[in-house]
Amino acid sequence: MGCDGGTIPKRHELVKGPKKVEKVDKDAELVAQWNYCTLSQEILRRPIVACELGRLYNKDAVIEFLLDKSSEKALGKAASHIKSIKNVTELRLSDNPAWEGDKGNTKGDKHDDLQRARFICPVVGLEMNGRHRFCFLRCCGCVFSERALKEIKAEVCHTCGAAFQEEDVIVLNGTKEDVETLKGRMEERRLRVKLEKKAK
């Protein structure tokens, strides 16, 4: 029964079961979504733009993607719906006064709080770290928490006063259902623009 001099193999050593599905660390995923560019995977830096599906990008990465059509990048599918710079909106973000940034821990002897966010909601003061839902307005690019938009129901932007409609509100880094809804709205909007151009 043994193989080499008295060893007796157990069943679990011989029979391999189905592989366990690796679970994605939710905290790491949130940090990646809210702190890194979807296209270049570099840390987000101003100017930051968002597409019609609510994904965050560095503006220079989007411009490079649009100019460099020859190279098929693996992450190009994340931005395949971006056909021109008009398909993204530059975001007007409010800085978080409590955020220390990279200057806070240069020696590596302090704990980095990954939930501390660079930006906050200008109305309610919630941090933009993925724990709360955030939206931006397509018409002006101002970013708010969803709670602020629900609590203060208005037809104008809370920061700049620009008028907006319900379809101008786009959820940042939303769920799969949110992305599907936004994709449908994006296709409707593009079709409407195409029909208006043909009518002229």
Q: What's a quick, concise take on this entry?
A:
The protein has helices at residues 11-14, 26-35, 59-67, 146-151, 176-199, and strands at residues 48-51, 56-58, 88-90, 94-95, 119-120, 134-137, 143-145, 169-172. It is α+β, with helices and mostly antiparallel strands and 200 residues long.
Description:
This protein is an alpha+beta fold. It has one domain (25-97, 116-199). It has five helices and eight strands. A three-stranded antiparallel beta sheet has the order 2-1-3. Strands 7-6-8 form a three-stranded antiparallel beta sheet. InterPro entries: Rtf2 (IPR006735), Rtf2_RING-finger (IPR027799). This is Replication termination factor 2. One of its GO terms (biological process) is DNA replication termination. Pfam families: Rtf2.
Can you tell me the number of structural domains? Answer: 1
Note the gap between the termini.
85 Å
Poorly predicted regions are: none
Number of strands: 8
What does the overall shape look like? extended
Radius of gyration over C-alpha positions, nearest whole angstrom: 23 Å
Mean pLDDT value: 84
Q: Main beta sheet: strand number and arrangement?
A: 3 strands, antiparallel
Task: Indicate the percent of residues in helices.
Answer: 25-40%
Structural class: alpha+beta
- Spatial order of the strands forming the largest sheet: 2-1-3
What's the number of helices? 5
* Strand residue percentage: 5-15%
InterPro entries: Rtf2, Rtf2_RING-finger
Protein name: Replication termination factor 2
Subunit structure: Interacts with DDI2; probably also interacts with DDI1.
Family: Belongs to the rtf2 family.
